[in-house]
Records
---
Amino acid sequence: MTDEPLLRGSALSKFYGSRVGCENVSFDLWPGEVLAVVGESGSGKTTLLNCLSTRLLPSSGTASYRMRDGQFRELYRMSEAERRFLMRTDWGFVHQNPADGLRMTVSAGANVGERLMAVGDRHYGKIRATAVDWLSRVEIDEDRIDDEPRAFSGGMRQRLQIARNLVTGPRLVFMDEPTGGLDVSVQARLLDLLRGLVTDLGLAAIVVTHDLAVARLLSQRMMVMKDGHVVESGLTDRVLDDPRAPYTQLLVSSILQV
Amino acid sequence: MTDIATYNFAYLDEQTKRMIRRAILKGIAIPGYQVPFASREMPMPYGWGTGGVQVTASIIGPDDVLKVIDQGADDTTNAVSIRAFFKKVAKVAVTTETAKASIIQTRHRVPEHPLTAGQVLVYQVPIPEPLRFLEPRETETRKMHALEEYGLMHVKLYEDIARHGRIATTYAYPVKVEGRYVMDPSPTPKFDNPKMHRSPALQLFGAGREKRIYAVPPFTDVVSLDFEDHPFEVQTFDQPCALCAAENVYLDEVILDDHGGHMFVCSDTDHCEKRRADGHRGHLAPETHLASEKMEPAQ
């Protein structure tokens, strides 16, 4: 691991009028590290994720990202063209609802190939070969390559969305409730797949989830949010096994046992 | 009509023409960029060439010679009506000969006869946005043009190859103008795309309903999008024109009877007539011009 973080957020705040989205959030994310942001709904975790991925501009605070050349760039000072380029090359964004992140009316192969074509790939055979490779890595049969995602199950759509995001070899992936809305067995396989991919590719990821089990499986570190503030952060195992903040203790003790 | 004063010259008022000319100039300055303009009500329905008519009305002068074609033909309703319209409101000379015209308003064809410097080709455009069917949001497509994000256009071509084994788009085939803007060449057959490349004539595109004008100045690069392993190619026909035996031209299929008889003839009627006048004969050409009832259907 290098001695410099990949993404650095400092004093990020987002207000919706007089309401607080998130307030004064600071953290460092290191290369290859998975950071989970947990909390109940309305706690500001998605607002934070949207600010970091530049889908929203924060009211105050800064975030800087270490580009491939090793230089830190302040995200909110970059031009829109640069941000969008970063978004489709070095970053990925996995939405909770796959329909938001996929083009539902074009084939699975084209969904995976779109990012390649967006960065200038103009060889059909190579694009298709890459698409086939990625579909197999996310456990989608090769003969489904020309089917539209509309014909896919929820779990397949989510896996396709992941393939579409990872095809350009990003270094940082944002995930918003990646396993939300999936039944438990599908969820387990998806988590398994994600864990494998994150380790194999050395991805850094920020995973927003309300599911502490997902956080425990995927992440090394976690931040617990409540009412827009970070109430506790630390190593995932430490936070879950020895919660210090009262709210975290409540959250951990609320997990249903079977 | 005794006097042209019943209408302003070329129907539109001078302020409107000024506004449209401004849009045209901006379009010429930024080849392929869609310039918004305040499209006016014209005495014809949208979809019949209101954009093209407004562009023509704004650039036409008393000395111009106008030709109007509809799918290559000078003698179909749309072409005849627009020609008559300008004859009435601008009292300009009209022609069907490509070489003699100074302004050619066209619906979906580029004439076969090569265009020359000084000629203006005015296209009627139904949907100017090449990304429209891939991205329905106008705010988003404008941003994609601004940031030159054209990956999506290739997604469409990818889909074509995945489904049909080749690029199956045959008309409104997307082009890149001067290495910058991706443009819809209006629903011309892709056969005509190479004619737009470095054409000596000025090409203007008017979309009345969508309120957009764009332009390709003379000698501008117009390159059809493709893949390295699936290069752009134009349609080919296995037989020549049945009337004038022309090859390497765009042909229309004409149904002759209800027993499956059909023939392929030039879509450009002016080109076909010229060739026949020069003595070229296709295999279905009548012996004389009056003997057309003797025509036999092709097999």
---
Amino acid sequence: MLNLAKVWEIMVTKFGTFMQGVSVTLELALFTVLLGSLLGLLVAIFRRTRIWPLRILFNVYVAFIRGTPLLVQVLMIVYGLPQMGIRLPRMTLCVIALVINSGAYMAELIRAGLQSVDRGQSEAADSLGMSGAQKMIYIILPQAIKVTLPAMGNEFIAVIKESSVLYAVGVYELTYQAYKLASVNYRYLETLLDAALIYFVLTYVMTKLLGLLERRMRRSENRAD
Amino acid sequence: MKTAQTEKTVIDSGSGRDVMIEIRDLCKHFGRLEVLKGIDLNVRRGDVIVLIGPSGSGKSTLLRSVNLLEKPTSGTVKFDGCDLTKVSRRELYAMRQRMGMVFQQFNLFPHLRVLGNVTVSPRRVRGVPQAEAEKKAVELLTRVGLADKVHEYPDRLSGGQKQRVAIVRALAMDPEVMLFDEPTSALDPEMVGEVLDVMKQLAADGMTMMVVTHEMRFARQVADYVLFLDDGKIVEAGTPEEIFDHPQQPRTQDFLRKVL
């Protein structure tokens, strides 16, 4: 049976261990989202250009990543790159795997953002003599990013949760820490429930923060009030 | 052109000055739909050309072909002697800087304040220093009565104000010709006047203009030359007096009866 007292006890006594896991998880998520958005941005932009080899390459990339399991991708990168002679710290390999994964999803989000910008904006920029790059940088992208920002926030939350698959390659993130504790104290249910609670608090707080940010952005848009 | 009866005539806006825009045998198809069926037109420097005609007649497409927002299916569009259908992309960008355009839906940049809307192109495309670009922007905005709106975002402006900003945004690039694509069609009636006033002033200052509009009074007052388009062709062309008072073609007569 689930022992609620144990849930509490483990949380309190092993709080430090959990927090080490949290810090690794957040670090992973932060790097992944920052680098993933850059990758996604690049991919989204080049999928729109006339450079067709890049377009095909990036289309295949997005389709492949979205159509295969994250765990398989992680295993391929974390064990595959060293096999190819690319020696990097485990943590770096994990970030690479997550960035490659997240970049594909970000590319889709940003693409939707780019598509949401009215055609008239592009025509107005054209009529002013802007080049394709100028138009993208000064007119289209700022508007697309604004539309995409909330979805990027959700991606951050998703990565916090999904990074738990890294437990499989022995990175000391939250899930791994909890599993390790449980395999010593044999309180799997209680210990992993603690981990779940911590994940929940993280994502819940993040959701609320994002909601706040979004409302503030909307308010700055209609500064009538 | 394969018109058997009528020999090919180039419509010419006719004042004695040099030809700025030279359109020859311009055709535009959207899939199977033929929107323009062979347009021949000279627009001379300083002239105000007004394009009228029923919706779907191709007048907007013709206007948008001048700065190649629409790529012609065949034919040539020359600006200042340079064939825009043949130039490199870079040259096209340079040519477009010399042509201003105003859209029915304004198309202001919503993420930029009025000042940013007007200065973004001079600064980013021409490399004009910020202070200089802003000084000129404020000057132009003051001229159209929007000095107090400089720091507003577009969504805080009325339709008429938006369109005046859009005109100023185009003027900030010192264009040699201004293209107006139904500039008052999306406006509430009480705001049409303020936009037309700005356009009249521009015309009085000698700006070369091509205007697609349903404002027949404006056409009569301001146009040097009126083109009536129907079914992808210029059906009739002439001075406002010729077109509005003595239309020769039955289709022109029919159209004017409906709109006047």
